[in-house]
Specification:
Elements: H1 34-43, E1 51-55, H2 59-62, H3 71-74, E2 84-87, H4 89-95, E3 104-107, E4 109-111, E5 121-123, H5 126-131, E6 136-141, H6 149-166, E7 170-174, H7 184-196, E8 201-204, H8 211-217, E9 222-225, H9 232-244, E10 249-252, H10 254-257, H11 262-275, H12 279-292
Parallel strand pairs: 1-2, 1-10, 2-3, 3-6, 6-7, 7-8, 8-9, 9-10
Antiparallel strand pairs: 4-5
Helix pairs in contact: 7-8, 9-11, 9-12, 11-12
This protein binds ribulose-5-phosphate.
Amino acid sequence: MADREGNIDPKDFGIGIPQKSEGFFLKGNSHVEWGMKSRLSRIFDPKSGHSVMLAFDHGFIMGPTSGLERMDLTITPLIPYSDCIMCTRGALRTIVPPTCNKPISYRFDAGTSILTELNDQCIQDIEEAIRLNVSMLAVMAAIGDPEHEGITIRNLTKTVDLGTKYGIPTLGVTAVGKNLVRDSRYLSLASRICAENGANVIKTYFCEEKFEQVTNAVPVPIVIAGGKKLPERDALAMAYRAIDQGAAGVDMGRNIFQAECPIGMILAVRAIVHENKSVDEAFEMYETYKNEHK
Ligand code: 5RP
C-alpha cells in the first residue's frame, strides 16, 4: 500500500550529471526497441559481442538426421554449453527442458522437404512463438531460386513485421539454391537482401575467399552455419576464420553434434568465438576433453 505520510523526501537527483545513455553493442541494432535489444542481449554475449548457437532444426526438412535420431540423448546434454538453441517447436516440446533457460532461435517457417522441392515455405503463428517464449524467429530466404524466392522473401518480410510488433528479432537464413555457388558474391547478395528486408541477424555460410566482403556488405551481425561435417580441426579453423573476418558467431549443427566428442567440440568452438583462442589452442582443448572423457 502506498504511504502518503512519513516518506523520506527524495533528494538525490544527480543535478549536473547527464543521464547515462548506453549505446548498443550489436551492429545495426542500435535503433530497435527495448524488447528486441533485451532478446538480442540474451542471444549474443554483450561482453564478447558473439554467440555460439546450437542448431538442431535439421529434422524439419531432413527427418532423422545422423546425430539427431535421439535428440534426448545427443542434444539435451549439449544445450547447457550453448548460448542459444535453434530448433523447431516439435523439438522444444519433446526434448528441450523448459528449465534450461536458453534463448531460442525458433524455426518459424515450414514447408517442403529434401524429397521434393525445398523452399516452398509458409510461416507459423506468432502467438505460438510468443507462447513458447522464443527470442528470435528464423526464416529461410531462397535468393536466386526462381520458383521460391518471392515466397520466402514474403515470409521474411511478414516475419519481420510480426517480430517488430512483439519485440522479437528475425534471423534471415540464406538457403543456397541448386545452381548457386557459395561464394562471396552470392552470399553477400543473399545476406544483404535479408538485411535490407529487415532481418536483425543473418545466418549464412562461410566462404574461403573474401568472406570479409560478406560481413562488411551486411549492416547486421552474421553468424555462420557449419554445413556438412568436416574433420574437427577444419571445422574449428572455419569458425576461427569466420570470426576473424567479422562474423558475430556460429549457428552450428552437424559439426558439433556429429563430432566424435560433441561436448569437447562445442567447448572448443566457444573458445574461438568468445575467447579469441587460436585454432591450435582450440583443437588441443578438444583433444584433451575428448581423451579425458572417453
Ligand atoms: C537449415 C539450417 C540449419 O540449422 C543449418 O544449416 C545449421 O546447421 P549446420 O551447421 O549443420 O549446417 O538453418 O536451413
